[in-house]
Amino acid sequence: MKCEKVTKCRLDAVADIIGSKWNLMIIWHLRDSTLRFSELQSKMCGINSKTITKHLRDLEKESIITRTVFPEVPPRVEYTLTEPGRGILPIIDAMLIWGGKFRHPVEGREGCERNRIASAGE
After folding, report:
1. H/E run at residue 114
2. Residues 97-118: pLDDT tens digits?
3. Where in the chain is the domain with CATH 1.10.10.10?
4. Which of 39, 50, 62, 113 has the fewest C-beta atoms lying within 10 Å of its C-beta?
5. Pairing, β 35-36 against β 65-70
6. What dihedral do alpha carbons 57, 59, 64, 68 form, nearest 10°?
């Protein structure tokens, strides 16, 4: 029997946003400041332009980030978290704390996790 969803429950909606590694990383990097596309991409190792563009569009569609285009030559585009986007930050902090209790950091990738956990009082 095939399961067909007609409407999404709230958990589905949240999972669509924070269930993606790249969405989480974009939100994480925008937590403290507005960033241009190239700045954001340089902070996210292992993501190509096509993938980051898709995830930025998805987050903008969900009103998690805003995209501001400045009419300059060459055009400048900046991304920032919205208030709903900022509301996800405590969830990410809780995930980092939980992950710190149950998983050892991957060597070379522990920096952001350790810093964030320490600042959360862990």
Report:
1. helix 110-119
2. 988 887 766 555 544 544 444 4
3. 10-84
4. 50
5. unpaired
6. -20
pTM of the model: 0.76
Helices (H), 30-109: 37-43, 49-61, 83-86, 89-102
Which class is domain 10-84? mainly alpha
pLDDT at residue 99, rounded to an integer: 86
Q: Give the Cα separation of 42 and 67 in Å (integer).
A: 18
SS3 96: helix
* Residue 63, Ramachandran bin (φ over 0: left; ψ between -120 and 50: alpha; else beta): left
Q: Say how far apart CA 35 and CA 3 lie, in whole Å.
A: 41
Measure the CA–CA gap between 114 and 122, rounded to whole angstroms.
9
